[in-house]
Amino acid sequence: MDKKRASFLEGTISIFVNTVLFAFKYWAGVVSGSIALMADAWHTLSDSISSVVVILGAKLSSKKADTDHPFGHGRWELVSSIIIAVILGVIGFGFITDSVSNLSAKESANFGTLAIVVTIASIITKELLAQYAFYMGKKSGSTSVKADGWHHRTDALSSLVILVGILFKNLFWWIDAVLGIVVSLMIFYAAYKILMESVNTILGEVPGEELIEEVKSHICSLYAYDLYPHHFHIHNYISSKELTFHIKIDNHHSVEAGHAIATSIEELIDEKMSLSTTIHLEPIQYKHQHD
Questions:
Q1: Global pTM?
Q2: For an engineered disulfide with 235, which of 18, 144, 176, 242 has Cβ 3.0 to 4.6 Å away?
Q3: Which residues constitute the domain of residue 263?
Q4: Edge-to-edge strand list for the sheet holding 241-249
């Protein structure tokens, strides 16, 4: 499925469902006086904000390559994921501050049937949204849609934690404030995971062993002698990926012959793996410190 279409579908559904959930959860939080429920409600509303970011990111990243951006605009998707992570971090900080304040003031919540019903409904709904986002993300290969799925999952888990806490409300007066802190830590963790995945992609990735072995097997299918492929690097632009590596050829080969070898490998990898490749040639006797 096209990334732009997947992001729009997932984002639109997420915005509608999360806005409705926010209203009910915040209402339940106000009625019960629960900081944890109100924090969870704002966490849910932040999903709507992040979904708007996902849709905008998909629109920007779908733009074709141009003179100023020869590798396309795919990394806008990574920027979108980073924005989602920042939103999560800010929200988590606000919640943990309020929770510590309530804990210090020894304020407790008065959970009732409304809080239980809304929390259970939230758990089920948010997990369904998470599964849908993961499915759409896998089908389209969109990292920002996957990131939105983790946002839904953390909301479902935070609601689950709150539900467990509600069941013990009569035993511990401090349960609401502590739950608020737990939810905040879960939000921080989700923000960290999303942020690191995007940052690592921007900084550069080491090609997986499976990819390297597949490239080597294609080279072996073309040439019976060893070309010693090495120094593999991959540049992920989301909408496209660029692979670079070195090979060694006989010193007696002409420039034209060496170019023909490299070109034939590049064309085969593009055909078999849909991967743009640039190959650096080295004389077979050449040694450098990384060999």
A1: 0.60
A2: 242
A3: 209-283
A4: 230-236, 241-249, 276-283
